[in-house]
Description:
It is an enzyme of class 5 (isomerase). By secondary structure, the protein is an alpha/beta fold. It has helices spanning about 25-40, 50-55, 60-70, 90-110, 115-125, 140-145, 160-165, 175-180, 195-205, 220-225, 240; strands at about 10-15, 130-135, 155, 190-195, 210-215, 230-235. The protein has two domains: about 10-20 and about 110-240, HAD superfamily/HAD-like (Rossmann fold, 3-Layer(aba) Sandwich); about 25-110, DNA polymerase, domain 1 (Orthogonal Bundle), CATH 1.10.150. A six-stranded parallel sheet has the order 3-2-1-4-5-6.
Amino acid sequence: MLALPDEINxxxxxxxxxxxxxxxxxxxAWKRMFDxxxxxxxxxxxxxxxxxxxxxxxxxxxxxxRSFLESRGVVLPDGDPxxxxxxxxxxGLGNRKNALVLTLIAEDGVAVFPDAVALLERVRAAGGRTxxxxxxxxxxxxxxxxxxxGLFDARIDGxxxxxxxxPGKPAPDMFLAGAEAVGLPPSACAAFEDALAGxxxxxxGGFALVVGVDRVKDGAHGPSLAENGAxxxxxxxxxxxxxx
Length: 244
């Protein structure tokens, strides 16, 4: 038996920082993109991990871009989702960042967290239903690259959110769509997140359990995850498999 409440049959996982070790790649891409933009305006550079954690982690690209720019007193037009990377718009900067992410992934590949795979395999073997709930528009490509597509019954990602007009995290809509996709109410689902916006979304959605996944060295991110809505914080998801 899993060390999780018996009433939980649905397991909704974020991707970056929970299943795949791509959060650092995203953080590096955000910094490179924003630093170039800020330097042209004589503004202080993007700070890691503070600015990443507070303003962009777990959010849709356009929401993260807008949130950080607002923190620096910069207002840009939203533009169009198909704006080219060189466009001086919210969508343009977001697409510039995405191009950098794809370059970094192509150069360095994608690592998978073994503890996440262990938990996914265990819950599926026990009859649980699984969904990926990620703000990333690249989620499908990343899953295919690491061979994990078969571990999820459904996928709600940045592409889905755009097609359906779903607000991004910290709004609960994407997680609620994930629960619906596996045919279960939030009260029968657990949400797994490493981002503050993500655990806040899980809490707002009324899920049975919100698990904060702290991948930061020495568990330094744990208190913030708990403050923002995590019921339990783990540094290794195997804790939820191996406890009896």
